[in-house]
Design brief:
The protein is of the alpha+beta class. Helix content is 34%, strand content 18%. 14% of the residues are buried. GO terms for molecular function: heme binding; metal ion binding.
């Protein structure tokens, strides 16, 4: 016979609000999602922002797939004691993770490798914005920065 699920207090669950130690409350159940932080498609920040509260609405608003819901079973660690959940929540922002320059460079590389991306895109967008702000409105004008004409839609 299976044992009764562990009953967690809201205060206890709220203490688990870091990347390596992250617990969430969803539909009265408590999940330790720490092992999933790096794999979450929305990033670890999304999960961290859901700590210290009942994250049921956040979870439902995203519209998770059936497979995502099934995956939650392996992170289940018990139930929340409903009498300990505050009626009015005091927001305590999650502790931000340290800046990781390795992740930043990975992001830049991904952007540069994005299919169809070229360095000209950034320059042309910059020139178009410059023309919209400084050049008298006209259908097109010549840009001395990019040595080309800029057309407005």
């Amino acid at each position: 016979m299976a044992s009764d699920p562990k009953l967690h207090t809201f205060d206890d669950v709220s203490k688990h609000n870091k990347t390596k130690d992250c617990w969430l409350i969803l539909s009265g159940k408590v999940y330790d999602v720490s092992p999933f932080m790096e794999d979450h498609p929305g990033g670890d920040e999304v999960l961290l922002s859901a700590t210290g509260k009942d994250a049921t609405n956040d979870f439902e608003d995203v519209g998770h797939s059936d497979s995502a819901r099934e995956m939650m079973d392996k992170y289940y660690i018990g139930e929340i004691d409903p009498s300990t959940v505050p009626l009015k929540r005091t927001y305590v922002p999650p502790q931000q993770s340290q800046y990781n320059p390795d992740k930043t460079s990975e992001f830049v590389i991904k952007i540069l490798q994005f299919p169809g991306a070229s360095p000209d895109i950034g320059l042309s967008l910059c020139c178009q914005k410059l023309h919209q702000e400084r050049v008298a409105p006209s259908l097109s004008s010549y840009c001395t920065l990019c040595e080309g004409s800029v057309s407005y839609l």
